[in-house]
Design a protein that fits this description.
This protein has 7 domains: 39 residues, no CATH class; 122 residues, no CATH class; 77 residues, no CATH class; 131 residues, no CATH class; 106 residues, Chitinase A, domain 3 (Roll), CATH 3.10.50.40; 90 residues, no CATH class; 105 residues, Chitinase A, domain 3. By secondary structure, the protein is an alpha+beta fold. The N terminus is likely disordered. Helix 3 crosses helix 4 and helix 9 packs across helix 23. The protein has 24 helices and 24 strands. It is extended, with a radius of gyration of 36 Å. The chain starts with a helix and ends in a 6-residue tail after the last strand.
Length: 705
């Protein structure tokens, strides 16, 4: 109370301190962003056009909501949210870049065109997909007209979805026009078609052998700095990164239950076990729900559904049989048999679903719950007296997806349907027609099959996870905090890791779009720190919290966008440079052997392979793997000629050309032209990456997510 009194007495001073701190935070953010508040910093600038944060956030939230509906979980993981935001960014950048191209070329979609794409004779594919009659599985234009007629009366969210759909159709049509401009400009003359026909159709009859690189030991070759430099300069295009990169070392402090934590949990579980012995069976479920980390599961279990540790006791014992406490998978368990019965493992039924407004998954349903119940009762009365009409009435009236099949649900396992539906089938005989209400609406059910009943059990299980206590969290945090506070430089960071015997991990170079970091669930906080303009090489972070762990990181290196320096690329190219040196050794060995192909192969202990249908446009060499460049060189040999050693990706080869067979002569190259056109069209669809590469894009997404 004295402490509270002191706080009240100095409340004015406290408020002033908080105000100053908040002002410092806001002003610091303002100055860091060059005088612009974070909300005013664009998410990106694309060829001079800004993607503002409000616009981006509005589109991202819509995409997140769409993803939630698709996932049907009601929530998304941190990684899923990051992915959706990244997709939103790419979507908005693409829209800007493509609109620029459309404007340059005068590409547009008129109101009349959009009408035809929505309500015309040849609607867009997305309209076909969304307005298909479930009974006929065919597009129904009347459904489109009815939907649009009711659009003004729909909720705002539905109207927004429709407008987004129209925008997608318009954009897709523009892109089709853009692609048509490119693909229709492609012309294949007869001479080019003839050449393509001959090249793709010719085959060679060859004999050859190859000496694989692994036949030369690593210590047989010596790599010099000149070797690295030569390979790097010849293949420099392979070592270019598009964005600036960072490299981190980090230490993870895992929060795990201490011996004291385990002992305390064990004591609690033993107390629960003693209490459980005194509780009547009918009150056990409520007790489990009040003390267990997992709620009571009232479903009936078959043999094979329960953990092996308890199954025998539960199926051979009487109600009240208890197993435990025991530890399994980092949890304490106590199991108690509540009830046994005989039930079928699987059943078969058909149903007619009468949905109503507010029922689960009910779309475009206008009837109320009372109206649905009345209609369901009417149908039930008809079917009670005439069950043979079930299939007919299901096709006509069911709101469920199985209506088109006469309501047939096929076989399903006990417990997989909604509870009331499941129990209605269990408790009635084959051929019976019954009703049930579930979250989806009213069901008229016809039981069409049941397997023989088997013994099943209901088991109550108390589960207590072995988790670290608050004190343990505090202790590990203090350990991580002390480590971060005492090691402000990279040298201190490295020395302290070695001194304390900690496990240092490294990220390798990454750009600001990275999400995954090994061992870390929410890595974006660390990525943002690494790319903060105030974070310099050698800086050590404060403590990052990540579920049941704490992380301290150090920035060890940075790379600007552009070519990776040779020194940084050495580890990456070492196997390739070594392969080059091994190729020199193998070539020298081949050239040292006199004689023809057979003699060289015998002298080297190699086996000659025969290939009588080697295609000019082939990629794989029998017995070795992908070698398209080697195959291309083989076709330069004359009949009867033996090649010099040819260096490939898998081995060094020697070939003897026995002969080349040309494809049959033809005069009409229409099929070849069409094939070349299709190939070009597929490649033309990849034009956007080239457009994006030429654009001037300032990406600030790291500041927002």
């Amino acid at each position: 109370m004295a402490a509270i009194g002191r706080i009240r007495k100095n409340s004015g001073l406290l408020i002033a301190i908080i105000g100053i701190a908040l002002a410092a935070f806001v002003l610091g953010d303002l100055f860091k962003s060059g005088g612009r508040g974070r909300q005013n910093i664009p998410v990106a600038v694309v060829n001079g056009e800004e993607i503002t944060y409000p616009d981006f956030n509005r589109q991202a939230e819509q995409n997140l909501e769409n993803q939630r509906q698709r996932s049907r979980t009601g929530d998304l993981s941190d990684r899923q949210r990051f992915t959706v935001r990244q997709q939103t960014y790419e979507q908005m950048v693409r829209e800007i870049l493509m609109e620029e191209k459309y404007d340059e070329l005068g590409i547009e979609v008129t109101t009349e065109e959009l009408y035809e794409l929505v309500q015309g004779k040849n609607p867009h594919q997305v309209i076909l997909n969304n307005f298909t009659d479930p009974n006929t599985n065919r597009f129904d234009p009347a459904m489109v007209r009815q939907f649009l007629a009711n659009l003004d009366q729909m909720e705002q969210a539905q109207r927004q979805q429709w407008f987004a759909l129209e925008e997608y159709i318009r954009d897709d049509r523009k892109f089709q026009k853009f692609q048509n401009l490119i693909t229709k400009a492609y012309y294949v003359p007869d001479s080019l078609a003839k050449l393509n026909y001959q090249e793709t159709g010719m085959t060679a009859n060859v004999d050859y052998f190859g000496i694989k690189y692994q036949t030369v030991a690593d210590d047989e070759v010596e790599i010099t700095d000149a070797d690295y430099k030569n390979y790097y300069e010849e293949n420099k295009y392979r070592f270019k990164n598009e964005n600036e990169q960072r490299n981190l070392d980090y230490v993870v402090f895992d929060v795990t239950a201490s011996e004291e934590d385990v002992a305390a949990i064990e004591e609690q579980v033993n107390e629960l076990d003693e209490e459980l012995k005194t509780i009547p069976l009918d009150e056990v479920p409520r007790f489990v729900n009040s003390v267990s980390d997992q709620p009571y599961d009232s479903s009936w279990k078959s043999r094979g559904d329960l953990p092996a540790r308890i199954e025998s006791n539960m199926f051979n014992g009487e109600p009240g049989e208890k197993v435990g406490p025991y530890v399994e998978n980092e949890k304490y368990h106590i199991a108690k048999l509540i009830e046994t019965t005989m039930r079928p493992d699987s059943m078969k039924a058909s149903h007619i679903l009468i949905a109503y407004q507010g029922a689960s998954r009910a779309q475009d349903v206008v009837r109320s719950r009372k109206e649905a119940q009345s209609f369901s009762d009417s149908l039930f009365n008809v079917l009670k007296n005439n069950p043979d009409r079930f299939e007919e009435l299901a096709k006509e009236y069911s709101d469920g997806p199985t209506g088109a099949k006469g309501g047939d649900l096929g076989w399903f396992a006990d417990g997989t349907m909604a509870y009331n539906f499941n129990e209605a089938v269990v408790n009635n005989d084959k051929g019976d027609v019954v009703t049930a209400e579930t979250a989806f609406g009213y069901h008229i059910i016809k039981v069409t099959g049941k397997k023989d009943p088997v013994k099943k059990v209901r088991v109550a299980q108390i589960v207590r996870e072995i988790t670290p206590s608050s004190q343990t969290y505090q202790d590990v945090y203090m350990q991580a905090s002390s480590f971060a506070g005492e090691n402000k430089t990279l040298e201190q960071f490295e020395a302290s890791i070695e001194e304390q015997g900690l496990n240092k991990r490294s990220t390798g170079f990454f750009d600001k779009n990275k999400y995954a970091i090994p061992g870390i669930t929410q890595p974006r906080q660390i990525v943002r720190w690494a790319f903060d303009e105030e974070t310099k090489i050698g800086n050590v972070s404060s403590v990052f919290e990540d579920e049941e762990k704490f992380i301290v990181a150090a920035l060890t290196d940075t790379r600007p966008a552009g070519y990776i320096p040779l020194e940084d690329a050495k580890d990456q190219i070492e196997p390739l440079v070594r392969r080059e040196k091994k190729a020199e050794v193998i070539i020298a060995k081949i050239e040292d052997k006199a004689g023809d192909l057979n003699a060289k192969a015998m002298g080297l202990g190699a086996k000659i392979k025969h290939y009588d249908n080697l295609r000019f446009n082939g990629r794989n060499l029998k017995g070795f793997g992908p070698e398209s460049k080697v195959i291309a060189r083989v076709f330069n040999l004359d009949a009867g000629e033996t090649s010099e050693p040819i260096q490939g990706d898998m081995a060094v080869y020697v070939f003897r050309m026995n002969g080349i067979e040309q494809p049959p002569a033809i005069t009409n190259y229409k099929g070849t032209k069409e094939s070349m056109q299709r190939t070009f069209e597929r490649n033309a669809a990849m034009i956007y990456p080239a457009i994006k590469e030429q654009a001037d894009i300032e990406n600030n997404t790291i500041m927002f997510y």
